[in-house]
């Protein structure tokens, strides 16, 4: 009996660790990309040597350290203020990355002018929020991002930005105890299966029974034997391990194909709408893949695999963190509101899973635009077609030729720096010599062909539905459900990726602890978002129109949840080539690209955006901050030792951060924070 109980505890611990770490943490895009990882070095050195370094930190590492880190940051800003050399910059693309980049540049007193080039007539890129009147009030529909990941320290750059923009009081924070955080489902024929997560209102025994019952669900078929496989299987030889592999291959060889097909494929449908046979494990599962060496046990006969490593790290409270997050936090300017709110933000981020804003993520874009206009430094060049972009041969700087709709003519301009946040292929198309009387421009070089290798993005159809019935769902309210690739065609002919229970993912607490629960929607009822397509639609030349998409979404909801009500509002949007895919070999390709761009454009062309180093809005904000600081060589890494400056433990003075893709050469660090 005692043994059984112990086994039960071990099982529960394991379920938490594995499912939370592998499934739920990656659900919010927890694995950004290392772009400067020195793969050659990684091949020859030990598995942890370059990509994943351990920091030996004392136990006193606590959140308030960030608060203290403000003062040196302010000093750095003051140093910056003392710089005399001024410059002009061009930012290509008006999505969240481009707008954040322009915002960060505008904070630099030595930056004279920023010209932001956007080829369409609107700013925000994939971020589109719409407030729709319905009977009894309004609902907010999102056609792009809807939930912003809350994690420490990863969410801080975005939270700092929002606070600097005056949005602190507008945050809607979904706490870890909310239904949206607790209840996440996977559809496995023919029902929604709640993923294991302990419910605080249940006793230990009740939670245990619930775990055991969940494990009996067919979706967990061969799950336990998969764990045994991982514990017993030896790690790959370092030379072989240094080669990238697909997510399906990695999960398959450690835990068996069932875990990959039934669980992991669903998660990657939720984040990337992608195919785990093509997505890169090195890029997206780096923090987990680094652990396959295990901890060694039974006289070194058994490695323990990922499972034992996760358990051991959980006991020692060691977490894998991303160096870039710390670097972005370190250079962000702190306005008076941020100085006041910094500690509150850390507490808030630690207790939440996601956050958003009352009018949707689009509110962040509105605030950014208002701030950029108020700065007086930013010129918005809307509807502008860039014709050519080229480096000067002798002097530094970039020459750009573009069609000015305002002047009705082609204009040429020289910039000190160009930061591109547009898709790589779009950039490749404009990297050529302007038809300019001057001849001293550098040859085009290899950059365009390297950019063109990064040309795979998937298309998704987003269908937003509103029903007046607030009790529509047949299961407990939650975040929503995902559909794995192992579902037979008859169960998913619409190529569904998942359904978001958008009513409950857009409610939460305000930043004032005494305020009642906040919701984006003033009308009662149920808001659902159905996501279709993704990698299933690769190679399609035609896509469903609005009526067909709504019919498909409703058919899917009827089959999966027996929902037959008619929505009173249905809006859809086809998001074409919207989600870039980090396929096998991504890190190597980005490493080569970054170095080539640095060389060919003399550190004057910087690349950012969701194609390079993480897809989430938080990742894009971080990229924007990094490129407008270290990327243009205006900031150096501060070497005052602090747990929030993990680079001081490395040979950081030799890191190349200027030009190309800015990111730290050491990608993942172990931390107690
Ligand atoms: C359906 C969907 C759901 C998502 N859900 C979430 C979520 O819940 N949470 C989350 O964190 N993230 C989510 N994401 C991801 C996130 O929204 C994007 O990764 C992010 O918005 C990308 O921002 P960006 O500025 O890098 O690129 P973009 O938004 O693509 O902006 C690039 C801009 O450049 C412009 N441009 C292109 N070519 C040129 C050119 N030649 N000259 C000038 N301008 C040009 C474009 O018009 C565009 O405005 C989602 C994405 C999609 C599509």
Automatic annotation (TrEMBL):
Its cofactor is FAD. It comes from the Eukaryota. This is Protoporphyrinogen oxidase. Binds 1 FAD per subunit. Keywords: FAD, Flavoprotein, Heme biosynthesis, Membrane, Oxidoreductase, Porphyrin biosynthesis, Transmembrane, Transmembrane helix. It is found in: Mitochondrion inner membrane. Catalyzes the 6-electron oxidation of protoporphyrinogen-IX to form protoporphyrin-IX. The chain crosses the membrane at residues 12-29. The keyword Transmembrane helix applies. InterPro entries: Amino_oxidase (IPR002937), FAD/NAD-bd_sf (IPR036188), Protoporphyrinogen_oxidase (IPR004572), Zeta_carotene_desat/Oxidored (IPR050464). It catalyses: protoporphyrinogen IX + 3 O2 = protoporphyrin IX + 3 H2O2. One of its GO terms (molecular function) is oxygen-dependent protoporphyrinogen oxidase activity. Residues 96-629 form the Amine oxidase domain. GO terms for biological process: protoporphyrinogen IX biosynthetic process. Pathway: Porphyrin-containing compound metabolism; protoporphyrin-IX biosynthesis; protoporphyrin-IX from protoporphyrinogen-IX: step 1/1. Its EC number is 1.3.3.4. Pfam families: Amino_oxidase (PF01593). Belongs to the protoporphyrinogen/coproporphyrinogen oxidase family. Protoporphyrinogen oxidase subfamily. One of its GO terms (cellular component) is mitochondrial inner membrane.
